[in-house]
Amino acid sequence: MHNTAPAPQSQFAPRSQSAPYALPHLRDADAGLGDLATVQAIYAHHVRHGLASFEEEAPDLEEMLRRHAAVRAAGLPYIVACDDAGSEASVLGYAYATLYRPRSAYRFTLENSVYVAPGLAGRGIGGALLAELIRRCEIGPWRQMVAIIGNGLGNAASVALHHRCGFRLVGTLEGVGLKQGGWRDTLLMQRALGPGTASLP
């Protein structure tokens, strides 16, 4: 989505492996509830062991708190998926939006990020997070959302997730990242938000 050992599986495991998967509870990430500690652990796993993120050193909790604060200060959503609505609920994944680029002409275009805890793929968590992120962004003034998918077509799960949520493939940057001993592509996908380019803001 990133070599010390990954976070213990028990931290992320569903409460009952035999029970049917329920849709996760979605809410704003809350640093005060300790959400960002689990978010940091999830992201650190993907940085150290995956190719979706092109970061090579996992940011610490202080840095993740700073990033969360910057997203919220920009008026953008940063949400978590939990196993229930209680204050002790386990964070199963997270998603947020940032401005695609800082120059002013890009101010109506966003980039999304979605990460799910290790071992929890296939439960609909990523789809629920991305759908809710899109819904919240469409309430605002933004008109386009871009996904920059590390490892290109090698990241088939992320490509499929974005297709299901209305994104289309718009291009591939070949060999732009060097990670885990190989050159890695990034895939660009895009979808309109609200009226898209049909009218000016």
TL;DR of this structure?
The chain has helices at residues 9-12, 35-49, 61-73, 125-139, 156-164, and strands spanning 25-28, 78-82, 91-99, 109-116, 144-150, 168-179, 182-192.
Topology:
Elements: H1 9-12, E1 25-28, H2 35-49, H3 61-73, E2 78-82, E3 91-99, E4 109-116, H4 125-139, E5 144-150, H5 156-164, E6 168-179, E7 182-192
Parallel strand pairs: 4-5
Antiparallel strand pairs: 1-2, 2-3, 3-4, 5-7, 6-7
Helix pairs in contact: 2-3
Measured distance between first and last alpha carbons: 32 Å
Q: What would you call the structural class?
A: alpha+beta
Strand content: 25-35%
The number of helical segments is 5
User: How are helices and strands ordered from N to C?
Assistant: HEHHEEEHEHEE
> Radius of gyration from the CA trace?
17 Å
Largest sheet: 7 strands, mixed
Mean pLDDT: 90
> Using DSSP, what is the number of strands?
7
Largest beta sheet: strand ordering: 1-2-3-4-5-7-6
Q: Helical proportion?
A: 25-40%
Which stretches are poorly predicted, pLDDT < 50 over at least 5 residues? 1-19
| Apparent shape | globular
